[in-house]
Amino acid sequence: MNVASVSSHTATTPFSATKDESVDQNYAALIAQFYNVEEYKSRDEISSDDTELQKFKDDLITKGAAIFLKDLNEEKIDALVEEYRQKLLKEKESNPDQPMDINQMVSDFRKQLLKEMMEAQKAEQQDKNNQAATLTSSDILENIKNVKSDDKKSAQNTIGFLEQMLNPNHSDTRKRSDIIN
After folding, report:
1. What are the sequence ranges of the domains in the chain?
2. pTM of the full predicted structure?
3. In which residue ranges of the chain is pLDDT below 70?
4. Strand, coil or helix: what is 170?
5. CB neighbours of 48 closer than 8 A, spacing ≥ 6?
6. How far apart are CA 88 and CA 27, in angstroms?
7. pLDDT digits over 34-65, tens only?
8. Between 102-156 and 65-94, two packed helices, what is the crossing angle to 10 degrees?
9. Which helix (H) or strand (E) is 160 found in, with range?
10. For residues 142 and 135, what is the distance between their CA atoms, to the nearest angstrom?
11. 8: helix, coil or strand?
C-alpha cells in the first residue's frame, strides 16, 4: 500500500466521531446512585441563599459593630441564664424539701456573668493598650539599633578605593606589588 492509496482510503472512509450517549447517561446514573451530586454554586450564590447570613449582615449594618456585639453578648447571657434556671428547676423538682429562691439565684448568676464580661472586656482593652505601648518602645529600640549598626558600618568604610590603592600599607596593594616584582 502506498501513500496515495492510504490517503484515498481515509478520504473515502469518513471517521466516525459519534459517541454513544446512552453509555454516558448510564454511567452518570450509576454515579448518582452512590454519590449525592449537587449543582455547583459560587460563594456569592450560596451567600445570597443563606437567610441567616443576610440577617447577620443587615443587623451589623443597621446597628453598627458596638451595638451588635452588645446585643450578641446579651443573647449569650440570656441563654446561659435560661439554662441555669432550667437546671435549678430540675434540682428543685428532685429535692422539693430544700427551700430555694430560684429568681434570686438566677439574678445573682446574671450579675456574676455581667461582671465577668466587663472584667474580660477591661482586660482585653488593657492588653491592647499594653501591646501598642510595647510595640512602640520596641520599634524605637529597633530603630536605635539599626542607626548604630549603620554608623559602625559607614565608619569602617571611610577609606576610598583610590586611597587604598595609593596606600602602601594596605594588604591588597602589597600583594599586587609582590606579584609585579
Report:
1. 20-150
2. 0.44
3. 1-20, 22-23, 37, 133-135, 150-165, 168-181
4. coil
5. 54
6. 59
7. 887 677 778 877 777 788 888 888 888 998 88
8. 140
9. none
10. 10
11. helix
